[in-house]
Write a structure and sequence with these properties.
The protein has 16 helices and 23 strands. The protein has 499 residues and is of the alpha/beta class. The protein folds into two domains: 269 residues, Aldehyde Dehydrogenase, Chain A, domain 1; 187 residues, Aldehyde Dehydrogenase, Chain A, domain 2 (3-Layer(aba) Sandwich). It has a seven-stranded mixed β-sheet, sandwiched between helices. It has a six-stranded mixed β-sheet with strand order 10-9-8-11-12-22, with helices on both faces. The radius of gyration is 25 Å and the shape is globular.
Length: 499
């Protein structure tokens, strides 16, 4: 049985706690590895390594730090297939989707090559008699990231790439469900020229999370996961004086106006709702057609597409639409929510709960489910299902449709499909959601913009990647300087003003 440990001080370290978590192959249901769960001593060792290495890295000029990112991007491209296969094996994603996971992280690394420009400060000459004022952005020191199972390549890179480019050292606590890729990324960073100790990967459970939140050396924490845990991490981190950016759950709506291209809208819903088995925080889980005729036309197009979804292991080829859920517990939870939706009165138009794949009967597979006539009081509407389930809520008017995402507790992403520019502009201006798509179902911003939700989908005032990433991982220092010129002798007792 393969044992997966930690990556501390630039090398692999075996776990010493005696505690392990099983790592499954979701397609077969078999345990394929065991990952060590860190002790307090192991977390302390990672922090100590990071703290020792960070000052010299911070003193390295930004251009040289950027060159490490340039080399890292080259290595990611070189090992793309290897990384995608390891990711699919532990998570269950199709290989094209796994490559997309890596590429969206790679794009953030590319953005971080611009660190010399992004870290420039500001300067005012002659702010007063012989006085210059300038500001500089400096790293925080040792920072940490706690990342989820559903994007084991992308989200760690969203965290550690800007942090390291800014001159920080980083402690990564990835999900114990698919731990191999984060360690592979750390190996590639060392190969790219990163000094040992600047990126440490510590596998663990809640004990490791709490150790990060309570450690006085760690200055900032980034988190992605469920909303209850995001609130917990944010509250405990900030109570301990840390900077925190924490991203939680989602319930992403897609509004379909009567003038929308119905074929385009249906295809968008299939990809956005069922890709990665729905295990995406930006998945569209609620379709809101406006008008009965729009709803009827949409359902008519969706049903055969959902029934035709090709489900299988990543080894079945690139034409597989999605694979298994990540664990048996996740599968049971999704099936339970579907059953609850039926009991609450929603119409289950397509039922994928009994899907079984020959030769993979013990895998965590589930077919696509499609609900119609869902109402906002139902649990399947209020809860993030995180599975291959799409709910259709029929709205009579645009205003009724707009109210659904506006009044929901989550505010991660939303989309509208329409040919009318005035409607689209109104929607984008009024909606209280962090990321908006217009005829784009999954509006994940490109790397040089920022990613972040509103309401209970995000906690903290700075988002992930883009300019916000560099702001989050640095603090501003402002210097006011005056050199002796002989213009005035003696002490000054009045508050200085810009005379």
């Amino acid at each position: 049985m393969q044992k997966i440990g930690h990556f501390i001080g630039g090398k692999h370290v075996e776990g010493t706690s005696g505690r392990f978590a099983d790592v499954y192959n979701p397609a077969t249901g078999e345990v394929q590895a065991q990952v060590a769960l860190a002790s307090q001593a192991e977390m302390d060792a990672a922090v100590a390594n990071a703290a020792a290495a960070q000052p010299a890295w911070a003193a390295t000029n930004p251009q040289r730090r950027a060159r490490v990112m340039m080399k890292f991007v080259d290595l990611l491209n070189r090992d793309m297939d290897k990384l995608a296969e390891a990711l699919s094996r532990e998570h269950g994603k199709t290989l094209p989707d796994a490559k997309g996971d890596v590429i969206r992280g790679l794009e953030v690394a590319e953005f971080c090559i611009g660190a010399p420009h992004l870290l420039k400060g500001e300067f005012t000459e002659g702010a007063g008699p012989g006085i210059d004022v300038y500001s500089m952005r400096q790293p925080l020191g040792v920072v940490a990231g706690i990342t989820p199972f559903n994007f084991p390549a992308m989200i760690p890179m969203w965290k550690f790439c800007p942090a390291i480019a800014c001159g920080n050292a980083f402690i990564l606590k990835p999900s114990e469900r698919d731990p191999s890729v984060p360690i592979m990324l750390a190996e590639l960073m060392i190969e790219a020229g990163l000094p040992a100790g600047i990126l440490n990967v510590v596998n663990g459970d809640k004990g490791s999370v709490d150790a990060i939140l309570d450690d006085e050396t760690i200055q900032a924490v980034g988190f992605v996961g469920s909303t209850p845990i995001a609130q917990y991490v944010y509250s405990r981190a900030t109570a301990n004086g840390k900077r925190a950016q924490c991203f939680g759950g989602a319930k992403n709506h897609m509004i379909i106006m009567p003038d929308a291209d119905m074929d385009q809208a249906a295809d968008a819903l299939i990809g956005a709702g069922y890709g990665a088995a729905g295990e995406r925080c930006m998945a569209v889980s609620v379709a809101v057609p406006v008008g009965e005729s729009t709803a009827d036309a949409l359902i008519e197009k969706l049903v055969p597409k959902v029934e035709a979804l090709k489900i299988g292991p990543y080894t079945a080829g690139n034409d597989v639409d999605f694979g298994p859920l990540v664990t048996k517990e996740a599968l049971g939870r999704v099936k339970g929510l579907v059953e609850q939706g039926v009991k609450e009165g929603a119409k289950l138009v397509v039922d994928g709960r009994d899907f079984s794949l020959q030769g993979y009967e013990d895998g965590f597979f589930m077919g696509g489910c499609l609900f119609d006539n869902v109402t906002k009081e139902m649990e399947i509407y209020k809860t993030e299902i995180f599975g291959p389930v799409l709910s259709v809520i029929r709205a009579k008017t645009y205003e009724e449709a707009l109210d659904l995402p506006m009044s929901h507790e989550y505010g991660n992403g939303t989309a509208i499909f329409t040919r009318d520019g005035d409607t689209a502009r109104d929607f984008a201006a009024r909606i209280n959601i962090g990321m908006v798509g217009i005829n784009v179902p999954i509006p994940v911003p490109i790397a040089y913009h920022t990613f972040g939700g509103w309401k209970k989908s995000g906690f903290g005032d700075l988002n992930q990647h883009g300019p916000d990433g560099f702001k989050f991982y640095t603090r501003t220092k402002t210097v006011t300087s005056r050199w002796p010129s002989g213009l005035k002798d003696g002490a000054e007792f009045s508050i200085p003003t810009m005379k």
